[in-house]
Amino acid sequence: MADYLRSRQRRGRWFHYYRRSGKEISLEVHGLPPHDPRVMAAYWAEHVRWEHRPPDAVTPKRHTFAWAVDLYLSGCNDWAEYAESTKKTRLAILRRYVAAQGDRLLSEITQKAIEIALYEKGGQAAVGEYKALKPVFEHMRRLHIIERNPMAGMELDRPKSKGFPTADAEDIAAFIAHWDIGTVERLVFDLALYTGAARVDLAAIGRHNMGSGLLTFDRQKTGVTCNVPLTAELRGVIARTPDIAPTFILNKYGKPYTPESLGNLFRDAAVAVGMKARLHGLRKAFCVYWAEQGKSTHQIAAMAGHLTLGEVERYTRAVDRQQIVRLIVEGA
C-alpha cells in the first residue's frame, strides 16, 4: 500500500507528494489522477530511496542523471542480484559519470551524446561503460520516468579479444618446477588447476564443499552450481590443507584470502616463472583437461559452472591437450 502518498485536488487539478518524517516531497507528476501508473511509479521510486538510503542522504535534483543512478542503485532488482565484483566495477563507472554529468537532465541525454562518449573511450573500457549505463536508463523507462531508453538499439564496436591466455604445457611445467609443494603459491596453482574455480570462488571453497565424490560450490558470479570430481590428484592437494579451516587457502594470519589478494599473489608467482596465464588461464586448462579425457561439453559445463556451452567450446579449442593432460596427472 502507498502509505506515504499524499494526493489532493486544488481547483480541479491533482497534486501528489511523498510525506514522511515531517517532510513532504513533490513527486512532480501533478495533473495526473492518483491511480495513474506514472504517479505510482514516481511514488515507489521515492519510497525505495527512503527505505534503502540513510535518512541524511542528500537527494539529487529530480530528473537528473545523478537522481536516476540513485534510484537505480537503491531500487532495481537486477542491480541487487549482480555479483559483488560486478557491482564494484560498475559502481566505479557510475560514480565517474555522476561526478561529470550528474546534474544533466535525463531529457537532455540523447543516444548521439552517449555514442560519442563511448566512441571516444573506445576498447574494452567502452564496453564496460555501456554495460554499466544501459541498465540505469532501462530502469528509468520501466518506471515511466522516460519514454525510451536512449541506449536501446545502440550498436557498439566491440574490440576483438582472444580473452585470457590459457595456461599451456610450458606454463604448467615451469610453475611446477619453480614452486615446490608446501608453498602457498603451489597450493593456489594446484587447486585452481584441479577445480577450475574462478578467483572469487577459489578464495572461498573448503572442506565444507566436499561430499559424495564431488567438490560442489555455487559460482559467486552467476550462481551456477559447479560439480567438480574429487580425483585422486585433487584429494592429494586437499590433504595438504588444514583439517579445520574455513577455506583451503589461508594467509599467514590463518585467515582466508580476499579474491583480490589471491589474484595478486598468483600474478606475482606467475611473473616469477615467466608465465603469461593467470588464474583464469588455469580455469581454461581445467576445461581442456576434461575435454581430452573424453567428457562432453555438457559435462564440462556442469563441472565448471558455465552458463553456455559456447564458453566451454571456446576454452577447449586449439590447445596442446595431450601434454596438458600428462602434466596435470604426473606433475603433482
TrEMBL record:
Q: InterPro entries this protein is in? A: DNA_brk_join_enz (IPR011010), Integrase-like_cat_sf (IPR013762), Integrase_catalytic (IPR002104), Integrase_recombinase_N (IPR010998)
Provide the coiled-coil residue spans: none
Which Gene Ontology BP annotations are present?
DNA integration; DNA recombination
Q: Which UniProt keywords apply?
A: DNA recombination, DNA-binding
Q: Which Gene3D superfamilies does the annotation name? A: 1.10.150.130, Intergrase catalytic core (1.10.443.10)
Question: Which intervals hold domain Tyr recombinase?
Answer: 162-329
Give the protein name, as stated in the record: Tyrosine-type recombinase/integrase
